[in-house]
Write a structure and sequence with these properties.
mainly alpha, two-stranded antiparallel sheet, 9 helices, extended
């Protein structure tokens, strides 16, 4: 290329080179898979009704087309208004039912926020909150989901989470698409090796499941403070309720000290009668 003094340079469009996609466009398919895995985690617990998660599945799968509407202010306002309304309804539900549906309401709100972020993530926003929420959902559902199904879902989640996080970091450092693909290809054998080693240890290494962990010893309530009651109490006989001397509860402190026994006990309050049985 030659240049003559006094002659302005003109920029010419590049030919033979692919257009560089914005970071969110390259990362969005992996974020979609993360959101779908979060919905699978919540569904695996069995604590949330399918009628509540089914619309979220549809909104997540439609994200590649819905997010094109981000340039419209009405689209963004509608999404934020729906999230606020849903949060208000869940709060009202929690106030009316107490702790009975707290797990269900919390899981619904968490995946709703994930779908909201997925459909509203633009070039000016960072997807850090999606990564954090995805990890948090996987961690919380591990306490309530069946071990086998949760383990399979966690393996699939890891295969998406790690490359997505790598691609996000590489994109922020200015790596082009070719370099990012090369690094991701290079990381696949290491991810597979670590996954295989973890599965081997889980299946063949002897473990002591009866050992009490530090968290259970220091944070959890002891068995002496737990009470088991049914979800329904159905009266078996009619007539007046009379006071009696029959023993209904016997408390034996583990350490033999009377001071360790709470002075007030409450397991559950059955305050609603549906015509046949009392319910909490």
């Amino acid at each position: 290329t030659t240049w003559e003094p006094g002659v302005p340079l003109r920029s010419r469009p590049e030919t033979g080179r692919a257009r560089r996609l914005p970071m969110t466009d390259r990362l969005h398919p992996l974020l979609l898979l993360l959101t779908l895995s979060d919905l699978a985690f919540v569904s695996a617990t069995g604590a949330v009704s399918p009628s509540l998660t089914l619309p979220l599945w549809g909104l997540a799968l439609a994200a590649p087309w819905l997010r094109r509407l981000q340039r419209h202010a009405s689209y963004r306002v509608a999404w934020n208004a729906c999230v606020l309304v849903a949060f208000g309804l869940l709060m009202q539900h929690a106030v009316e039912t107490g702790l009975l549906h707290m797990l269900e309401d919390g899981l619904v709100l968490s995946v709703l926020c994930q779908v909201h972020l997925l459909n509203n993530l633009g070039d000016r926003q960072r997807p850090d909150l999606i990564f954090f929420n995805s990890f948090l959902i996987a961690f919380v559902t591990s306490f309530f989901a069946p071990d086998v199904w949760w383990s399979l879902l966690f393996g699939a989640h890891t295969l998406v989470f790690v490359p997505a996080l790598q691609l996000h970091v590489l994109s922020r450092r200015g790596c082009d698409a070719g370099t990012a693909r090369a690094i991701l290809r290079d990381s696949v054998p290491r991810i597979a090796t670590i996954t295989a080693a973890t599965v081997g240890l889980f299946l063949f290494w002897p473990r002591d499941f009866e050992r009490v962990g530090w968290m259970q010893q220091n944070l959890a309530l002891g068995s002496q403070l737990q009470a088991g009651l049914g979800d329904r109490i159905q009266p078996e006989r009619g007539g007046r309720a009379e006071l009696g001397d029959a023993v209904q509860l016997r408390v034996t402190p583990d350490n033999g000290l009377l001071e360790s026994v709470p002075s007030h006990w409450r397991a559950r309050a059955f305050a609603a009668f549906d015509g046949q049985a009392w319910v909490p």
